[in-house]
Amino acid sequence: MSLEQAAYLELLALGAAVEAYDRPVLLARAHGADAASLAGIEHAKQLALRVRAELEGRRRREAELSALFETAHDLAGLRDLDAVLRAIVQRARSLLGTEVAYLSLNDPVAGDTYMRVTEGSVSARFQQVRLGMGEGLGGLVAQTARPYVTDSYFDDARFAHTGPIDAAVRDEGLVAILGVPLTLGSQVIGVLFAADRRARVFEREQVALLASFAAHAAVAIDTANLLAETRSALAELERAHAIIQEHSGVIERASEVHDRLTELVLRGGGVDDVAAALSQVLDGTVEFTEDGPHPAGTDGRAGRHGDDWIAGVSAGGEVFGALVLRGHPDLAPVDRRTLERAAMVTSLLLLARRSAHDAEQRVRGELLDDLLDAPDRDPRLLRERAARLRADLDVPHVVLAARIDGTGPGAGPESAARESADRQRLWSAASHLAATRSGLAAARDGGAVLLLPLGPDDTPASLARQTARQLGGTLRESVTVGASSPVASPAGDPAPVSGAYEHARRCLDALRLLGRSGQGAAAEDLGFLGLLLADPGDIDGFVRRTIGEVVAYDGRRGTDLVGTLDAYFASGMSPARTKDDLHVHVNTVAQRLERIGRLLGPDWQTPARALEIQLALRLYGMSSAVARREGSRAAPRRSRCV
Q: What percent of the chain has pLDDT over 70?
């Protein structure tokens, strides 16, 4: 082996640059080597360069295979799609030795392709560019599913140039670009690019290498999509499983509640038993309440109120009360439906109890009707009927007349229906009160009449006030109650009961006339007017003698001197205030007062005469109200079934 050949072997071993292989030839010429020696050295040089190129190609292929192997390894442990795509773009840029590499994906909805990953890019406009199908080199690759390469982008007329795309490429400074398609089967899903900012010719091996990376990228995207679909399917299965388990629990809980409530109803349980059973099922404290306003409606739905849950107990639009679950701010839907179902069972129990109660109250009403209308009944039979109702009619009783404030004659079917409903509600409440007090109650004269025993500490007035308060609280409306004097023994002597009822009615009318609606009172509470009510005597004669001339004048002339007289006394005998109350001129008031003076006499404003006139006005107003009530009464005096 010659020295020159040994020199080329040393250059191969050192991996020297191509320029270093010219040095042995130059040295041989400098030392005057003949032509045959120079030819041998030149031949050795060409052989060494061929060996060097082969070794360089093998090293490059080894690096490419290593990069492809690492990419395949990344795909095998795929966790983050973006990380895998960035690794592919980085390796493509490194192996091809380009300044920029990037990857775009197709958007089937928008019908274009957008930038997904870039490596080496410095332009924000380029990183956000979108290409329509067929636009630019990438659009052409995406449309045709074939690789395209250009060594001078702006001089290449094979693809459509657009202003936005060219501006983005120019902003990035790219010149030579290679693009290969990302395909899944026959579908192109994107493009992988390698690009330089100077003119460059991409070799066939480099195109094949980038295509291999594109294949890996397509697999990564497909794998990620499959994993996403799998995760979504698993999540759906988990949700479906949870729903099935929940529904199974709902069915089991509902079956348990149904069995317990059914057993409770069949063995004759009551409202408290329902609340106790529900407390065990819901693991809380459940109470039934019928006092006070309830935020729950009448639609059977349970609603949250603070930390409690409330289900209205109602039927036919009437609210009986509510079931209240204490201290459960978070209530599962199945438990909410359980509370609503228990409220429905409670309403059915209450309706059944009310039916039995109503039957008993009708019997009580019939007994009271007989005491009022048939005073000649056999006392022994009256006592037997009263004993079955747990009432003792041999002790002193008080007759009470009750009416809902504002209830009176009206016009039209709506008014009649409302009055009928009010009478029904008042009778029901009065019957319940009478039952709790061992008394009797009946519907009568558009209101209710009660016969209640008089306790040791009771007076007719206190009993009337208690009754007005209790009935008003139950009905949540103003109820006026008038009381009679005590009846010693309704069973032993029923005759005074009817007179006591008339007394109570007159007291009721007086209360409403005096502006004391919603109160309860007896004649003893009404002063001198009460004395007249207790012993009516010649009330009509007193009124006629005192203000009869004024009443007769109004009747003949159609005037309202009585109203003027009443307003005059109500305003403190002030003509100025009287004209304001009557909305007339003060001269009109003066003329009317002059006419009244001529009718009643010159001393009508003296204190004694004024007192008599005011009392007569009150009595006249009360008698007029009674007359209007009697004249407009459409129902018969006696009504048992309301």
A: 83
Q: Return the top range by mean pLDDT from 300-304, 518-522, 638-642.
A: 518-522
DSSP letters, 31-60, are TT--HHHHHHHHHHHHHHHHHHHHHHHHHH
3-state SS, residue 162: coil
- Residue 411 pLDDT > 60, yes or no? no
Question: Strand, helix or coil at 539?
Answer: helix
Distance of alpha carbon 509 from alpha carbon 151, whole angstroms: 113
Q: Are strands 440-444 and 308-315 parallel, antiparallel or unpaired?
A: unpaired
Task: Specify the residue for token string 């839907």.
Answer: 333
Strands (E), 77-171: 100-107, 112-119, 130-132, 148-150
Query: Quick check: 541 and 533 in contact, CB under 8 A?
Result: no
Report whether 310 contacts 316 (CB < 8 A).
no
Indicate if the pLDDT at residue 636 is higher than 50: no
- Selection from 310, 330, 329 nearest residue 321 by Cα: 310
Distance, in Å, from the CA atom of 24 to the CA atom of 7, rounded to the nearest integer, reads 7
Q: What letter would DSSP give residue 134?
A: T
| Residue 121 near residue 102, CB atoms below 8 Å | yes
> Dihedral sign, CA of 78, 82, 86, 89?
positive
The answer to whether the CB of 46 falls within 8 A of the CB of 24 is: no
Order of strands across the sheet with 187-196?
130-132, 112-119, 100-107, 187-196, 176-184, 148-150
What amino acid is encoded at 71 in this protein? Answer: T
Degrees to nearest 5, angle at CA 405 with 402 and 408? 90
Strand bridging mode 520-522 / 479-483? parallel
Q: What is the pLDDT of residues 75-86, one digit of tens each?
A: 556 567 788 788
The crossing angle, in degrees rounded to 10, of helices 586-600 and 539-557 is 130
pLDDT for residue 357: 58
Looking at the predicted structure, is the pLDDT value of residue 153 above 90? Answer: yes
Q: CA Rg, the chain, in Å?
A: 54
d(CA 106, CA 104): 7
CA–CA separation, 351 vs 366, rounded Å? 22
- In this prediction, residue 124 carries a pLDDT of 92
CA distance 342 to 331: 15
Q: What is the rounded CA–CA span in Å between residue 364 and residue 358?
A: 10
Distance CA 341, CA 629 (A): 47
Residue 154 in tokens: 């702006």
Lowest mean pLDDT among 31-40, 254-263, 622-631: 622-631
Do residues 454 and 466 make contact, with C-beta atoms less than 8 angstroms apart? Answer: no
**Could you tell me the CA-to-CA distances from 306 to 293, 298, 492 in Å, in that order?**
15, 19, 57
DSSP state of 456: T
The secondary structure element, H or E, covering residue 443 is strand 440-444
Instruction: Please name every residue paired with 160 in a beta bridge, in sequence order, or none if there are none.
Output: 135
How many angstroms separate the CA atoms of 237 and 81, rounded?
A: 24
